[in-house]
Predict the structure of Glyoxalase/Bleomycin resistance protein/Dihydroxybiphenyl dioxygenase.
Amino acid sequence: MPFSILKLLFNILSKLPRVLRERLMPNMLIPPISNNPSKVQLERLGHVYFEHPDLEKFSKFAKDFGFMETKRGKDRIYFRGYGKDPYVYVASRSKDDKPRFRGPAFVARSAEEFEKAAKLPGATVSSLDDAPGGGKIITFSRVDDTLFHVIYGQEEREVDSQIPTATHEQQGPYNGPFDKPRKGRFQRYHPGPALVHKIGHFGYVVPDFDRELAWYTDNFNFVPSDILYHWDFSNMDVLTFMHLDLGEEYSDHHIFFMQRAEPDVKKSFMHHTSYEVADMDTQLLGHQWLAKNGWKSVWGVGRHVLGSQIFDYWADPSGFKIEHYADGDLVNTHTPSSRDVVGPFSVWGPDVPKDFAGKGA
């Protein structure tokens, strides 16, 4: 449906009684989605690609955000967390001084699944020999110059048995009202960045919502954890948080979200990327560190409703929204999908900024 017509329908129908307006508004419901072996099975989100006009300025932000530089070239820097992925963020210098998101890269569960992805229409296979960990990559060009990548064959990092920290000197268990296991030991911290463990999720805002959602869920093991519908139209789904269906194995509540764009949004855009940190103390210390170094806070600290994460959103030097999160929910194949009206996005924390839903860069 053309966006101008949809916007006109919104303005007219939203003033009618619910029963009448939902009869007149075409159904825009997300159909039932489930995984099956014919789809490409992805294991996790490995990394993302960005282009920045000022690579050096972003590098300073990345250090304060908690990324660790692992390889640097003339026009590209690879940043890692302390998880098993060789890198989680690839920052390249923009050739025309315009910032761009260049897509997420998901890890295939096996060589067979990677080859299955390579047979999908539009797949372009290339090498990652120049990147830390090596491997191969498949790239798909999607609507509005968005990209989607599948990777396999990277050499994973050896993960430390102790969680690395730039802020914690001594930390034991929490003492609760009735159970106080920490006796004679003290919690001690110092200022520093919130070190990143891994990339957790990203999301697109898409005008051609139904077609794009069908492409991702028809071809890959993305399954909705939650679906939200419009407050004026219960027959219009506007947002879904999706996890990777790994069967009995638990995975993050959402690794990919997709939002139906407002009628006046003509082009798809990436809303934000999100990275896991160890705990709430790490997150709050990281918030103070970023603020002390002059970076722009967007929203946080607070706790989300769906996914339950403690969140903290910032703007990077190019204007992209980027999030620290901790304490997120896990789901598996036995966790039912939920559907509800769009409601508050936080349990506690600051009010959501009025421009939060918009494009940052």
Q: What stands out?
A: The chain has a mean pLDDT of 95. The radius of gyration is 21 Å. Residues 38-159+191-348 form a domain with the 2,3-Dihydroxybiphenyl 1,2-Dioxygenase; domain 1 fold (CATH 3.10.180.10). The first helix runs from residue 3 to 13.
